[in-house]
Predict the 3D structure of the following.
Amino acid sequence: MAQSASFGGVPLYQQGFWNVLFRVITGEAYQYAEDTGGYDTTLCNWNAADAIPWFLSDFGVSAQYMGFCNGFQQVPLVLAQLFEQAGGEVRLEAPVSGVTRSEQGFQFQTPGGTVSAKTLILAMPRRALELLSATSPWLQESARFQQLTASVTPRPLFKLFTTYNSPWWLNTGYSKADGEYVPVKSGRSVTDLPVRQTYYWPRSNGQPALHGHAMLLASYDDGDNTGFWDGLRGRRHSAWKKGLEVAELADPFIGADDHVRANELSWHRYKAPRMMTEEVTRQLTVMHSLSYTPKVRNAAFRDWGDDPFGGGWNSWNIGVKSWEVKRQIIQPLDGQPLYVCGEAYSDAQGWVEGALQTADMMLAKLV
């Protein structure tokens, strides 16, 4: 319906979501929706024909938070395991560059040398495709490839996790209309401070952390708010340019057991800077109306706006017929066994479902 609908005599796909909203609600209402929703980029000026059904389906009034035992990473780990059982080989930390065409298909460069392939599947978002094109002249010179990949805009996302000796947020809460006091145990809190969203991380069994070591997704933010944290971290994109996955920190936060557990958990590779940890502590204290919060045990962060990701999710550009582009980009160059898939060019942008959706569409085309 949204794809064929018009508003004010203009097709929705030719209008920005922000532009449409400002025709039907006040500026104050728009700001209120942005502040209380927790996200900035979801209400920004992206393709209205995609934004409206996306919002209605993904942020309904009866959302339930659910999770996987041992974390959501179990999904890609199991998929990789199934791939290997089917005869595939997974090579981690092997950046690809310099794709060229050959009589047999394609050749590209990895740290282990030149690799040949009959079929090339690029399961990448826009920014990663741009970085690959920069080292692959024939991709850079393909007007169709560039036009299709540029049909979306990367949106930055930032996450900062902190751990504690105990779940101190149980000491905060709110009073219901009948006077009953409800302590904070689970779910999330939203603020207009730069931390934006805080999630009270449950145990592996999905139950709230009521005692012992506990963790917060202390800050989950996007859009302009990610710029606030830029002043408290290394320069964005610097790590990728140096061939590193994570930027080296001049002043990292020194947490508990750092000398023992430095290599035990992968998240220690993404240590948060000291000043960033101190600032998020200050904002959490203000946000929860407390005089202080306990000392952080460990802290780690990821900025998905960094290379090679470019953003935590992607949105369709104004004027793009996404329902056509999402099918065209699966095989962007006619007659060539080159394929593109991922959440960036799907109906479920920002979600794993989008990646699986386009992967399924691509496999159907391959068969």
Notes: The chain is about 30% helix and 20% strand. The radius of gyration is 22 Å.
